[in-house]
Amino acid sequence: MVDEYSIYNNIISVLVVDDSLTSRALIMLALKRDPRIKVVGTAGTPLEAKDLILKLQPDVLTLDVEMPGMNGLQFLEKIMRLRPMPVVMVSSLMAPRSAMTDMACRLGAVECFSKSSGMQGEAVFAGLADAVVRAAVQTGKSHSGKSQGHSVVSDTIVAIGASTGGVEALGEVLGSFPEDCPPTIIVQHMPQQFSNNFARRLNAISRPDVSLVTDGCKLIRGKVLIAPGGEAHTEVSRTGRVSPYSCHLVSGPPLNGHRPSVDALFLSVAQAAGRLAIGVILTGMEADGARGLLAMRRAGARTIGQDRKTSVIYGMPKAAFECGAVEMQLEGSKNPLVLKPAL
User: Fold this and answer.
1) Are 134 and 37 in contact (CB under 8 A)?
2) Which residues are identified as catalytic?
3) Which of 5, 103, 148, 271 is most deeply buried (CB count within 10 A of its CB)?
4) Is residue 206 over pLDDT 50?
5) Do residues 335 and 175 lie in contact, with contact meaning Cβ atoms separated by under 8 Å?
């Protein structure tokens, strides 16, 4: 298998920031064992780190949370405001889906690494090197620090299903997406002859690029793909680390009376991405998508359903909600769509 970072001609330079001398030494040992990585410096305080970032221009920063003077999250906020760069938060506080992890991600951290409990020495940081490489690749950083534009790799994908009323709902949802949104794929029930115009309309009102799925195309950051209507189902597969996900047009009879089917998409995303996916089911008749969204949730994905009040037809999101597939409900208003917990 080709190494995920072999597409570059040089190794990833890393600055390690941790107030513990022991932790700095152990992180250095763990990272130095990986030939893809070079530790170019260490810092014990944010002030030291600030000077070294300017001097060394590292590709990736590893950053502790608990430090004197200014904690890691405060420093992360400053970095993202003044000199954005890939940051891996490294702390025992960075448990998956914890409040601390959510805050770090909102502030701009690319990866959050939780120290292995019950381990000793260098083994505490087993897996950190892979997290550093993912951070460098996901943010499009090469050894020269140049952005790779829309070819940026991301392991997290968004899958959206909609039917009656979905044209308007999708316009509202995508209107709030940033230009560098996560890779997004959409099934909207509609006849084949309307697919091209629909994609062009969404592209005109959206900051990310919007286009139709073609067989074998890659899911990449800053790109929204629309499943073409009529001829085939659209499914996603995982194809490797450099370009993690591909789209496929799959022949087959209609599923739940539809082709493409939201269930076909969601079931494939559950298998390909698991917890690295977000599933959204919007307004529509009947129940297409409920089974697939439930599979996504069981695989660890975050799942969202449109609420009754704002749905033109509360059929698909209702079926998904009633079978336990919906983790959160989407509440529409005159303002951008906001999330509220499902009861």
Assistant:
1) no
2) 163, 189, 288
3) 5
4) yes
5) no
List b or e across 133-150, with b for residues whose CB sees 16 or more CB atoms inside 10 angstroms.
bbbbbbbbbbeeeeebee
Contact residues for 120 (Cβ-Cβ < 8 A; gap 6+): none
Measured CA to CA, the distance from residue 79 to residue 108 in angstroms comes to 9
User: What residues pair up with 279 in beta bridges, in sequence order?
Assistant: 159, 303
Q: What residues form DSSP beta bridges with 212?
A: 226
Phi, psi of 105 (to 5 degrees): -65, -40
Distance CA 198, CA 162 (A): 13
pLDDT of 102 reads 77
Q: Tell me the mean pLDDT in the region 197-222.
A: 92
If you average pLDDT over residues 323-338, what whole number do you get?
A: 65
Q: What is the pLDDT of residues 273-292, one digit of tens each?
A: 998 899 999 999 999 999 99
CB 186 within 8 A of CB 213: no
Q: In whole angstroms, give the CA distance from residue 226 to residue 76.
A: 35
Q: Domains, the chain, ranges and CATH? A: 12-147 (3.40.50.2300), 157-341 (3.40.50.180)
d(C-alpha 306, C-alpha 168), whole Å? 13
How many angstroms separate the CA atoms of 165 and 283, rounded?
Answer: 6
pTM here is: 0.57
**Average pLDDT of the residues of the chain:** 83
* DSSP state letters, 158-223: EEEEE-TTHHHHHHHHHHT--TTPPPEEEEE---HHHHHHHHHHHHHH-SSEEEE--TTPBP-TTE
